[in-house]
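Appendix B, Record 12. Input sequence as logged:
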Amino acid sequence: MDSVFDAKSITPGAHREKVYPFNSLGVDIDGVQNAWSLTKVVLPVDAIKVDYGWVVPAVGVITSYHVAGLFIISKANPTNAITWQAFRIVKATETALDATSGAGEADASLVQIGDTLKFLVNDWVWVMDDATPNGEIGKVAAIDTDNYLDLVNDLANAYTVAQNAKVYLVRRDTANEYRCIWGIFAAANAKEIGKFLLHADRQFAAGDGVLMRVYDVENVVAAGQIYVTVLYDDMSY
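Logged structural output:
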C-alpha cells in the first residue's frame, strides 16, 4: 500500500479496504449460550474517526476510518440455523451509570443513570463496563425520567461505577440509521461466508463502534465459531 498518494486521484465512491482486527480470522465468537446475551465488540468505541461516507481530503491529510461493511464466516456446522446481528454502538448516547445495576440488585432489569433523555421506550441498549467489556444488550420497557431505564429482561451481569459502567443506544426501530444488520447461516452447513455492505440507512458517526451478537451457535455438531471482520478504509496511504 502506498505511503504517499495524490488526493486528486481519489474519487467519490472509490476506496481501498482493510480489515479490523489485523489478522486472518478476525474476531471469533464461540458458541456456549442459547440466548441473545452472547455479544462481542467487533469495532470498539472511538475507532471510527469521522462520520461514515466518502470525503476527499486535502493533499497529505490523514483523515478517517470509513466503515464499508462486514465479512462473516461461519465454521459452526450447526444442527440449527444460526442467526446473527450487527449493531452500531452510538457514541453520542454514551451515558455513565450512577450506581451498580444488574445481577445482584433488587431489580436486575434496572439500569440506573442520571440522564435518560437520550433513550426511548423500545430502544435496544448495550450495557458494559471494564470488567465485562462485551457487555449485554437489553430492550427498554419503560423509562423513569429521574434515574433509570427499566429493561424487558434482567441483566445477567453486574455493572459498577467503579468499573466505569456505561450504556449506549444500539438500535431504535423507528429510525433506519439505528437499525441492525442481520443474517442467518443455514443448518447443517459447516462453512458459509457472507459480505454485507453498509449504506446510507446505516450511517456511522465519529466515535461509534460495531457490536455483534448471535443465537444458537452452541447447537453444533462440533465446536462452532463465527469469525467477523469489519471492512474499512482509513485513508492513511
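The first strand starts at residue 18 and ends at 20.
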